[in-house]
Amino acid sequence: MLAHLTSAVVLLGATLAATTAATVEPLSFAISATSQNVQFAAPPDANNATQIIAFLHAASTTGVAVNGTRQVSGTFAVTGSYCKPTTARVRGILQVLVHGATYDKTLWSGLGQGARYDYRGYANAAGYHTLALDRLGHGSSPQHPDPVAVNQAQLQLEILHRVLAAVRSNRSNRSNALGRSFAKIVYVGHSLGSFLGAAIARTYPADADALVLTGYSTAFTTAAIAAQTYAPGALFSPSRFGSALPLGYVVTAVEAERSRNGGAFYGGAFDTDVARADFARQDTAGAGEFASLPGLLLGGAGGGTAADAYAGAVFVATGQLDAAFCVPTAGRTCADILQATGESFPRARAYKYYAPADTGHVLSLHYSAPATFRAVHEFLDGVL
């Protein structure tokens, strides 16, 4: 009986996502932002791939030494794609979708692998507007700033804050590439995108009415990430990334590691063809994005990690086999970890978690994806 019910949920989710194809509107925001980036005590030589990979490995194991902060300012092009609802039951709510490391905005449409994996399509069919963004330096972003000193998590936080502020403001705001505003905004993140979402709730609590944090918890472990083999994108595939791409933008270099059942990305029940497509279509990760995470995590008032002032609703969706965010320890299950994650949002008006079985880190590319999409939108429908 349970198996039949699960199959029905999956079929319903896939059918809903596929009802009507959304019209995709590409756009670009011109965002001026300033951040206090961390200053690494011993940054790698920008032209030395060996040093860069060693720096990244240290960042994911022992950590890298920091020597204060430095101010970074600029005007940045933030590319994205906007889609309107594909149903007559339209909600005046915008979901802003922010991808994780080694992905771009196409993660949210399932990397072209079909309706089962199309979160954006599901949201549009459920009546939500969506804005899928490329983080700075990724996807169709025309800018690739220094991946160690400049393109750090702190700068991306400030850029996202200004994008959210722009789409909340009136349509005449020159920074608002949408040309319209939304009174209600849902921030949806995956992995690094979820870290940024939690930081927004902590630093700018009025930016989003609800948070959906996927591939996330406050019990982050790096062993599976450190076990990956990395290479500069410019050297790994110059035909795809361009030989001029700074070497600090790296990719996972071994398909078997990325698609391995039980590894950093996948676990449990998934289509190996989708995992192979994921490897072939992967984007880069910036060495500084990952190395600067400790500064982002401790960026709250008094150095705390809790979003004490955030009063919106929070939904966390993380697979039970997520090797980075839901690793059971003695006496502590994945459910315990996700329940405890809610403590970092002490004033949230609603908190709920969802932990799909047989599902690894990139949960939107597993067989359980439609059930996850449904759980997300049942929560949002109930709180917004």
Overall description:
By secondary structure, this protein is of the alpha/beta class. The protein has a single domain, classed as Rossmann fold (3-Layer(aba) Sandwich), CATH 3.40.50.1820. It has 14 helices and eleven strands. It has an eight-stranded mixed beta sheet, with helices on both faces. It has a three-stranded antiparallel beta sheet with strand order 7-8-9. Helix 5 links the parallel strand 5 (184-190) and strand 6 (210-214). Helix 1 (2-17) packs across helix 3 (119-125), helix 1 (2-17) crosses helix 14 and helix 4 (153-168) crosses helix 5. The longest helix is centred in the first third of the chain and has 16 residues, at 2-17. The chain is globular, with a radius of gyration of 19 Å. The two termini are 33 Å apart. Residues 96-374 form the AB hydrolase-1 domain. Pfam families: Abhydrolase_6. Residues 1-21 form the signal peptide. This is AB hydrolase-1 domain-containing protein. Keywords: Signal.
